[in-house]
Write a structure and sequence with these properties.
Elements (H helix, E strand, L loop, with lengths): L7 E2 L5 E3 L2 E2 H8 L3 E5 H17 L4 E6 L6 H9 L3 E4 L2 H9 L7 E3 L6 H10 L3 E4 L2 H11 L7 E8 L21 E2 L4 H11 L3 E7 L10 H21 L5 E3 L17 H19 L5 E4 L3 H4 L3 E13 L3 E6 L8 H5 L5 E3 L9 E6 L8 E8 L7 E5 L19 E6 L2 E6 L4 H4 L13
Parallel strand pairs: 4-20, 5-6, 5-13, 6-7, 7-8, 8-9, 9-10, 9-11, 11-12, 12-13, 15-17
Antiparallel strand pairs: 1-2, 2-3, 4-14, 14-15, 14-19, 16-19, 17-18, 20-21
This protein binds pyridoxal-5'-phosphate (PLP) and lysine.
């Protein structure tokens, strides 16, 4: 069994996280429950920042908040001095409501609306990561009447790098919905129009090659491709970027099949690649920005479920059902994602009887883990699924009108509720009654 962060087994034989017994958490807050190990998030945040400091490079580490966003999460990120990548009006609203400084917020999105851009500009976000030509027009339209300073932007490019990960989560290849083609002349057209703009300041370039990536080659190749172009742009446009943002995507360990590098190793390789390019070109070192999401929060999250019904298909398989499923973690259904799990109330017992963990949604594909070795399970046992901190709660939904779970933070022996469990009343809060046309 692989225990992440502060997780350990206590003297009752229970899983403990952040010094808090998970069975006590399940009793106090109910299940399904997302539990975050705050010390592990802090450790990850600090190690990203420190690795840039050690290499003497000016940097911003922006937490990709799509991995898990909530007011308390953003406040934790602010406490740790990171920046924030948001990708919608909703994430931006949450960030502002949490008191996060707008100057360290970067707005992403491949189809930002006028309203979202206006909201970002009104709040004075640190930069807009511009994705397409329409967005350039929108920014100019919105900012033409405001006499304020120019809007700082990065142009997002697709460097033609195929990251080795699931097809749905690669983003750097040329045939992608995101960004300007780096290799087909689009980005030059965008640079030309932004440099001529009276209302936009071109701060630099952004690229993100995908997610859950285990080697550094793709990042290095992307950086080299971007800098080859920067060399041309220096001649052609007299433009050199103040900022080069190389995105996120650093892989984590979900199961023993995964062999991630330490997060800081990616930073070192990226910075080395940039330094080499910069010294060959004789330009000054730009600020390097990165946007880790999963690698900051993924293994800090554990989901607790209560076990309910079971079904045996003779000679084939035993299904064990939990009180959640694809409504709180859609990743197995969407990406065939794999997880490890234990019985949190009986961790020390032999986990040697394979069962398949089924969710409660009315969907055959709602299977959380296939062939998971557990002790003989009984109703009301608590299953702890590891590494659910990224894209778990944030992709949760109300399929089958299942209320979304609660989220707690644990640290130094204390727990705090940071997202309340949805109630049935919450589920119908936006529903309106039928205006009936049938006369009785
Ligand atoms: C633009 C951008 N930045 C950062 C991230 C964060 O990726 P990850 O959670 O894999 O670090 C993503 C998601 O893939 C993204 O699309
Ligand atoms: N949501 C995805 C990753 C997408 C990242 C956003 N570009 C996951 O669960 O792995």
């Amino acid at each position: 069994m692989f225990l992440h962060g502060t997780s350990k087994i206590n003297d009752k034989g229970h899983l403990e996280i952040g010094g808090v017994d998970t069975i006590q958490l399940a009793n106090e807050y109910g299940t399904p429950l997302y539990v975050y190990d705050v010390a592990l998030i802090r450790e990850r945040a600090r190690s990203f920042k420190e690795s840039f400091e050690k290499m003497g490079v000016k940097a911003q580490v922006a937490y990709a908040s799509k991995a898990f966003s909530s007011v308390a999460m953003f406040q934790l990120i602010e406490e740790e001095g990171l920046s924030l990548d948001v990708v919608s009006g909703g994430e931006l609203y949450t960030a502002i409501a949490s008191g996060f400084p707008a100057s360290r917020i970067h707005l992403h999105g491949n189809n930002k609306s006028r309203a979202e851009l206006k909201m970002a500009l009104d709040h004075g976000v640190g930069c807009i990561v511009v994705d397409n030509f329409y967005e350039i027009e929108l920014i100019e339209e919105i900012s033409k009447d405001t006499a304020g300073s120019k809007v700082p932007v990065l142009l997002r490019v697709t460097p033609g790098v195929e990251a080795h990960t699931h097809d749905y989560i690669t983003t750097g290849q040329e045939d992608s919905k995101f960004g300007f083609g780096l290799l087909n002349g689009q980005v030059e057209q965008a640079i030309d129009s932004v440099l001529k703009s009276k209302s936009i300041h071109l701060l630099g370039i952004h690229c993100h090659i995908g997610s859950q990536i285990f080697d550094t080659a793709g990042f290095v190749l992307a950086a080299e491709r971007v800098f080859e172009k920067i060399k041309e742009w220096k001649e052609r446009f007299s433009f050199t970027p103040e900022v080069v943002n190389l995105g996120g995507g650093f892989g984590i360990r979900y199961t023993e099949e995964d062999e991630p590098l330490p997060a800081t190793f990616y930073v070192e390789k990226i910075v080395d690649a940039v330094k080499t390019q910069v010294s060959e070109m004789g330009i000054s070192m730009p600020e390097i920005w990165i946007e880790p999401g999963r690698s900051l929060v993924g293994d800090a999250g554990t989901t607790l479920y209560t076990i309910g019904s079971q079904k045996t298909v003779p000679n084939i398989r035993q299904y064990v059902a939990i009180d959640g499923g694809m409504s709180d973690n859609i990743r197995p259904a969407l990406y065939q994602a794999k997880y490890e799990a234990v019985l949190a109330n009986r961790v020390t017992e032999k986990h040697d009887k394979p069962v398949s963990i089924a969710g409660k949604c009315c969907e055959s594909g709602d299977m959380l883990i296939w062939d998971l070795p557990l002790p003989e399970v009984k109703p009301d046992d608590i299953l702890a699924v590891f590494c659910t901190g990224a894209y778990g709660y944030s992709m949760a939904n109300n399929y089958n009108r299942i209320p979304r779970p609660a989220v707690v933070f644990v640290e130094n022996g204390e727990s705090q509720l940071v997202v309340k469990r949805e109630s049935f009343e919450d589920l119908i809060v936006n529903d309106l009654p039928l205006k009936s046309k049938v006369t009785k």
